[in-house]
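[agent] plan:
  1. take the single chain provided in the ticket
  2. run structure prediction with default settings
  3. attach structure tokens to the ticket
  4. add a short note for the reviewer (M.T.)
[agent] executing step 1
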Amino acid sequence: MRRRRGLSAEEARLWAGVARSAIPLKGRSYPPLPPEVRVEKPATPAKPAAKPNAVLAPVRPKHEPPVYLSQHAIEKPTRRKLAKGRLAIDARIDLHEMTQQRAHDALVGFLRQSQAMGLRHVLVITGRGGTAGSAFGSRGVLRRVVPQWFTGPEFRPLVSGFDSAERHHGGDGALYVRVRRPR
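[agent] step 2 finished; step 3 output follows
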């Protein structure tokens, strides 16, 4: 028979907080809160001084979403309609297995054609990419660079906004794109 491990002080404190959010049964009371456990942080060693001529690049955490310059996200009501299928996706392009140059050329041509045809909302499928150790060595390059392309001067006249797609349209590996109206 397995022995159950007891709750740590932090787990007990969290559980008591959750239990206090519920109404207790008749004849029962709220569980007592255990005393808080203070954890002393170890002293951090002093950082060495940077070289005076060194150029430090800004560091962004991996979980922070990328910042898109001068592009607007698709409005929430429009995005919700696209996701639920109440607003049709006029066309789609799949960039899987393409090199960056080939994908760039195909995407420019697709968006120019979509704009000429008067299409408003399209789906661009970039793929999610594999892990660093995958058989193909792919790490989602197109997934990262396509949003950067949209902020560039070549795509600005074609794209008025974009946002990540819902799971059933490709999730992290696809983008809803609003095509700019021709001038």
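[agent] step 4 note for reviewer: The two ends are 75 Å apart (CA to CA).
[agent] ticket updated
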